[in-house]
Amino acid sequence: MVILPAIDIKDGNCVRLFKGDFSTVEKVASDYLETALGFQKAGAQWIHMVDLDGAKEGRPVNTKIYTDVAEKTALKVELGGGIRSLETIEEYLKMGITRVILGSAALKDPKLVSKAVEKFGSEKIVVGIDAVDGMVATEGWLEASDVNYIDLANEMAAAGVRYFIFTDISKDGTLSGVNIGQLKALYDGIPKDCNIIASGGVHTMVDIIACKEMGLYGTICGKSIYKGTLDLREAVEYAEKT
What is the pLDDT of residues 1-26, one digit of tens each? Predict the structure, then answer.
């Protein structure tokens, strides 16, 4: 299993939110590059980054930060937030971003997702599915829908998507543990050649162990690392064991 330590960016700062609420912004680190290099030193091979300003505005905002991390570290960068066009995806990939996250677009512009997979390959595209009570939320979690998260995943899988990030928004930033029930339902409910990355609520090694035992591809860790409830090196070493 892959561990993806996370850096969310708002107004150029490394922050975390509580349940996706922009009014709960908490600065968690002073320097994004120093933080990323610390993740690398702890053994991480990937980093999960989100442009929160971009997610809210529907366009890339903090581009230099992500390209800096891609250029100045050995980490593979998975990036989301405000990515709404093939042109933006292509620009990011050319800048050294390894994998691009399409979130709101999966629900609002499914043709974009299928075109992106066709043009750039399924290894370069991951669909982020964020849900409240099992229903998908979009636009930086500001808009709710009546679409079930498993139904959307299956629609995207039919379009060629093979990587999914699932976030239970009610768990995000809470350190209350991942939503095992919804993750297992997703794992059981979509094709077996799809890869699921758990996001939201990771607290301790208990969550890492649960995700690995479930057979998930990856787990994103944010606040748990910054608050010290999870040791990144320990998590990476456990996740990489066969």
Answer: 999 999 999 988 888 777 666 677 77
**Secondary element (H or E) of residue 135:** strand 135-138
The rounded radius of gyration (Å) of the Cα atoms in the chain is 16
Other C-beta atoms within 10 Å of 135: how many? 15
Q: What are phi and psi of 169, to 5 degrees?
A: -60, -35
Kindly list the catalytic residues: 8, 130
Strands 135-138 and 143-148 come out as antiparallel
SS3 content of the chain, % helix, strand, coil (to 5): 40, 30, 30
CA neighbor of 134 nearest in space, from 86, 62, 189, 192: 189
- Give the architecture-level CATH label for domain 2-240: Alpha-Beta Barrel (3.20)
Coil, strand, or helix at residue 99?
strand
Please tell me what DSSP assigns to residue 75.
P
pTM check: above 0.90: yes
Question: Residue 127 pairs with which residues in a beta bridge?
Answer: 102, 164
For the stretch 47-77, pLDDT in tens is 999 998 988 888 899 999 999 999 999 999 9
**Residue owning tokens 């974009």:** 112
CA 44 vs. chain centroid, Å, equals 15
What span, in angstroms and rounded, lies between the C-alpha atoms of 107 and 20? 18
Nearest CA to 46 out of 65, 73, 10 is that of: 73
